[in-house]
Design a protein that fits this description.
Rossmann fold; Arc Repressor Mutant, subunit A; 2 domains; four-stranded antiparallel β-sheet; 12 strands; 42% helix; elongated; binds calcium ion; transcription
Length: 226
């Protein structure tokens, strides 16, 4: 999973980072709330691990900001905190965290909670995804715009589904490579650009009366407008 760890205790942060990396996770560390929020706005993380007692902005404020202004407001958040009172746990969960792990914790427990989160996330959501007049039906692998069918290749379909699941948010090319191409992706190729341009032709140019949906955010990635 792509993990953002917001933690100001350098030794603990390094211990967690190393442990997660050893288990195949990709981890970025931010030492304070504002830096963490900045990183969360640029990268589509799968989970944020959030300390509560942070300099400048405490964890609850960071959490509220993530939920209100973040690039990915739905990103799962696990609070890691020495504040072990039930009322702290309750306020963290009520502020929108998925989970609360009391410090000190064992790395194995954190890893197990990440696996649990990943299982929930990996459950394929069968409900159709909609954006304005665009509809994608994952179950029947069908796409329509304004009720008119759009024929897509498997890769184009996977690409559109990924963008739709993050509608309104920038999806970085690295994330597209990881989710749509997995191990087949050749870093040097322009295969993503080619697929985006085919998708744009089928999705937007074929519907000149409708507002274009697919945007390129130069230097960052691609986004379906919300
Ligand atoms: Ca702290």
């Amino acid at each position: 999973m792509r993990v953002l760890l917001i933690e100001d205790e350098t030794r603990l942060a390094e211990f967690v980072r190393q442990g997660l990396v050893q288990h195949g996770h990709v981890v970025d560390v931010a030492a304070d709330g504002p830096t963490g929020l900045e990183q969360a706005a640029l990268t589509a993380y799968d989970v944020v691990l959030l300390d509560m007692m942070l300099p400048g902005q405490n964890g609850l404020e960071v959490l509220r900001n993530l939920r209100q202004f973040g690039n990915n407001p739905q990103v799962p958040v696990i609070i890691l905190s020495a504040l072990s009172d039930t009322r702290h746990v309750i306020s963290g969960l009520d502020a929108g965290a998925q989970d609360y792990l009391r410090k000190p914790f064992e790395l194995d427990e954190l890893l197990a909670r990440l696996r649990a989160l990943d299982r929930v996330r990996a459950t394929p959501a069968a409900a159709p995804l909609r954006l304005l007049d665009l509809e994608l039906d994952p179950l029947h692998r069908a796409v329509t715009r304004g009720g008119r069918p759009i024929s897509l290749t498997n890769r184009e379909f996977a690409l559109l589904e990924l963008l739709l699941r993050h509608a309104g948010r920038v999806v970085p090319k690295t994330r597209i490579a990881e989710k749509v191409w997995e191990v087949d992706y050749d870093m040097g190729s322009n295969v993503i650009e080619v697929h985006i341009s085919q998708l744009r032709r089928k999705l937007d140019r074929a519907f000149p009366d409708q507002p274009p949906l697919l945007e390129t955010v130069i230097g960052h990635g691609y986004r379906l407008r919300s």
